[in-house]
Design goal:
Layout (H helix, E strand, L loop, with lengths): L15 E11 L25 E2 L17 E2 L25 H21 L12 E4 L4 H14 L10 E2 L15 H10 L6 H9 L1 H11 L6 H4 L3 H12 L17 H21 L2 H33 L10 E6 L1 H10 L13 E9 L5 E7 L2 E2 L11 E4 H12 L6 H4 L3
Parallel strand pairs: 1-6, 4-5, 4-6
Antiparallel strand pairs: 1-7, 2-3, 7-8, 8-9, 8-10
Helix pairs in contact: 1-2, 3-9, 7-8, 8-9, 9-10, 9-11
């Protein structure tokens, strides 16, 4: 998916000063989730051109002992009679692939090209007092973060760098906190529901399903593959993203998924995300506000803090500017909810690396604050008439909108989520 790059970046005129930036994007390309693979795959998938490092190390201020740089090496044993589901080989399912790692590095490099080289906003070197990075409890986001940060601050490639992460049970970024009311709302109109708005496209695609099931040896009763096109979408798109052939039937190799069939799956997947997060009406906003409201409240508070800190610094009451750049690496469900809450004009399934950027500006002439939101590197358009085109919107309007949905510091979430 497109992201900010220096060549295409829509630069703001000199009457505004950039004060704060917050980025959220989906991780980059990966192997499919194991649940989205077929019971038996016709060819292996190898990941021996990269290593996933997992180790603990004492910080330099807390001990003299050093750790080895250990990484996982996937293997199967001849004494283990069990066969793993899906692809043979030495990958994790999922893991960020070598191509995904390179894309992550490029993403960081491009953002640095905008916010340091073009705008002079980011510091030349990584400074934890000015810049912070956040991930979810899913390790693939940390795999991306290690490359993004290196791409941004390449001179600090071997520096220890903290990644913020919330406790797994209450993580607002993934999101992973419990919101029963939102889940019940989603269950009434979304995946697995009997709502005609949802089931109509599944029924219309019955012939496509039958062909895919036959080729891929998927039982028609497998609910994971038939409640939505998510599983087929992930499986087929992961192959094509890595220049791998589309699947063929194990018993009859001449019977294969065609590009035309894959394209239909991708179109239906786009339809599903548009329906789930925008087209099903007010229910989509209720669902997203409940299930992602804490992150939105955190964003609103970050904007308040950035304005307060900037104003203090301008009066000479404070020398430190505080965090001026926050960068969160998340998932398609995370970015989808953000777009849903912003009521984006045209909803799509956020692809790998999909990016939403919030830029806070201060106008020189009146010292007032304005917000610009970029989606895929360009100004985001909302169908909400109060928000409209997110190009120098008074920031108070956006914060008031967020507060109206979830309350300051997410005070409404307890009632919204029936906690």
């Amino acid at each position: 998916m497109p992201h900010e790059r220096r060549a295409e970046y829509p630069k703001v005129n000199s009457s505004y000063i950039l004060e704060y930036v917050e980025v959220i994007h989906r991780h980059h390309k990966r192997t499919p989730y194991a649940a989205n693979t077929f019971l038996v795959e016709a060819y292996p998938w190898y990941c021996d051109n990269e290593a996933l490092f997992y180790y603990g190390a004492p910080l330099s201020t807390h001990g003299a002992n050093h750790s080895a740089n250990t990484y996982w090496s996937v293997y199967t044993s001849s004494s283990n009679p069990l066969v793993p589901r899906g692809f043979d080989g030495n990958c994790q399912f999922p893991q960020i692939t070598r191509g995904g790692l390179d894309d992550s590095w490029q993403h960081g490099y491009d953002l640095y090209g905008v916010y340091h080289d073009l705008l002079g906003f980011l510091p030349e070197k990584y400074d934890p007092n000015l810049v912070s990075f956040r991930v979810t409890n899913n390790v693939i986001t940390s795999q991306v973060a290690s490359m993004v940060t290196s791409g941004m601050f390449s001179g600090e490639a071997q520096q220890n760098l903290a990644l913020l992460v919330q406790p797994a049970s209450i993580d607002s970024l993934e999101p992973a906190y419990t919101c029963l009311a939102a889940n019940n709302n989603f269950s009434a109109y979304g995946v697995g529901s009997s709502d005609s708005g949802w089931t109509s496209h599944l029924k219309a695609a019955s012939d496509l399903y039958a062909n895919l099931d036959t080729i891929c040896s998927i039982a028609p009763t497998d609910s994971g593959f038939h409640m939505s096109f998510d599983h087929y979408f992930d499986n087929l798109s992961a192959r094509l993203c890595h220049a791998k052939p589309l699947p063929c039937n194990i018993s009859n190799p001449s019977l294969c998924v065609t590009q035309a069939m894959a394209d239909k799956v991708f179109r239906l997947g786009q339809y599903e995300y548009s329906y789930l997060y925008r087209d099903a009406g007010a229910r989509t906003l209720d669902y997203s506000a409940g299930s992602y409201g804490i992150w939105v409240a955190e964003l609103a508070q970050n904007l308040r803090h950035a304005m307060h800190t900037t104003d203090l610094a301008s009066t000479g009451n404070r020398t430190s500017s505080g965090i001026k750049y926050r960068h969160s690496i998340a998932h398609d469900g995370s970015v989808s909810r953000v777009l849903s809450i912003l009521q984006i004009e045209k909803m799509v399934w956020p692809g790998m690396g999909s990016e939403v950027v919030f830029e806070l500006y201060k106008r020189k002439v009146d010292q007032q604050y304005y917000i610009r939101v970029l989606w895929g590197g360009q100004v985001l358009k909302s169908s909400n008439p109060t928000l409209g085109v997110f190009n120098m919107l008074q920031v108070e309007i956006l914060i008031a909108y967020f507060d109206g949905l979830v309350g300051q510091r997410a005070k409404k979430i307890a009632s919204l989520c029936s906690l």
